Amino acid sequence: MKTDIEIAQQNQMKPITDIARNLGLNEKDIKQYGPHKAKIDMKTIEGLSEQKDGKLILVTAISPTPAGEGKSTVTVGLGDALTEIGKKAMIALREPSLGPVMGMKGGAAGGGFAQLQPMEEINLHFTGDMHAITTTNNALSALIDNHIQQGNELQIDSRRISWKRVMDINDRALRNIVIGLGGPTNGVPREDGFDITVASEIMAILCLATSLADLKKRLANIVIGYKIDRSPVRVQDLKVEGALTLLMKDALEPNLVQTLYHTPAFVHGGPFANIAHGCNSVLATKTALKLADFVVTEAGFGADLGAEKFLDIKCPILGKTPDTIVMVATIRSLKMHGGIKVKNLASEENVEAVEKGFTNLQKHIENMQRYGVPVVVAINEFTKDTPAEIEAVKKGCERLGVSCVSTSVWENGPKGGTDLAKAVVEASESNQEEFCPLYDTEKTTIQEKIEKIVTKIYGGTGVQYTKTALNQMKQFKKQGWGNLPICMAKTQYSLSDDPTLLGRPEGFTVTIREFVPKIGAGFIVALTGDILTMPGLPKDPAALHMDILDDGTVTGLF
Fold this sequence. Notes:
Formyltetrahydrofolate synthetase, domain 3; 25 strands; Rossmann fold; globular; 36% helix; Domain 2, N(10)-formyltetrahydrofolate synthetase; alpha/beta; 4-stranded mixed sheet; single chain; 3 domains; 558 residues; 12-stranded mixed sheet
């Protein structure tokens, strides 16, 4: 089997103008970034507002494992398969971060014969959105420190500045730093640190903003820290929201690309799902819904993280809820949740481990069903899967009244996903249930929201709070922030906040150690466990295996 990049490089792309034309767009509606990438003009997006929405398909997964689930691959393959069976389909995905690309996780353009094109450019600098976010974030940092240096009219407490600098590379050495050293002309010394770009509140804002005006309003509401009297300081107090919006104006427009089989795709925004809300932009998803009959999008990591946040944070802004949820699972991952070590996953058939690990899949299915959305399980096939193992999963799904379909889009492209596409269409067109959100944002407290997430979605018995977190909740209530949704920052590897508890753990509590108010984005982040907002590189980072030949050919990029 060829590598992902070899498959991509041997594929013939269509001009992006042709892809746009198939969506009913002309050259005036797009801004080209070379022959195979484009942004959709904001005026064009505004002109689509009266068109009817298509069906929305959300792809999520069981709790991820090192064995891999292939959620992005299934998302791309499903989009192609819907096109294969005669549906007008689009895909809406997040942009890859250079941190994971150069680190351990890899890219986010799918794999095998279910990929987005041009994959090298998507996984590297793409259209510059990540750099725009990085620059805008760091411009705000510079403006904050300059304000303090020039007399500090707002009386900002330099010990309580929560805004951090960012970069789009994993660099653990920058998590905690001291700036302003070297004397009076070099600024006021204070502690600072770097997050990865996708953890920036500006990334979250990009993905939740519905217009240029909304973008500016959200940027103005960012809380960067606190004054000496403990009152919050917002960007609007610094009077720099206009400059920040100017830096972000092009990044706000969704990016149009294509799959190997020329299905149109938006790739826009990329917040992580364990430290942010893990979904592509509202603008991209909303625009796709106006242009296609079926839109396939994904939420990051497992359904307890990305899907919950998609449903409780993104959907109220999007104004549309999923017509079907696709739950991706692999036999390998179910075996891992059943207690098998990574090195032994492909060694022999183990139906007992699959059945034991099925409890994780079952919990995620139940969680999604409680929202009133039909669920279709997609088994992402691997060559070492056995018929008995696959049958065990299908029987488990049958007991739950859920359709379960094997898919081989990685190996066979759209033809390997047609059964899944047909099941999704059937579920979407027969969905009669009313959507039921997990909580009423306005009528529940921060504490009540968290307890619902922990007990209903994670399956825990309760929540514990540090003294810091308890004090913050009191402060947030006084500030009027109690009616915001909650964005849980939690390990992706377990339903609990302990990454070693696989399967379907029970009897656990979740500890909230601290809150981070993201008032511009419009949610409160609750930090659990040892979640880091600046990852580190592994011992053998992917960057060590990448190269470019003298003729410009990229190698080693998956």
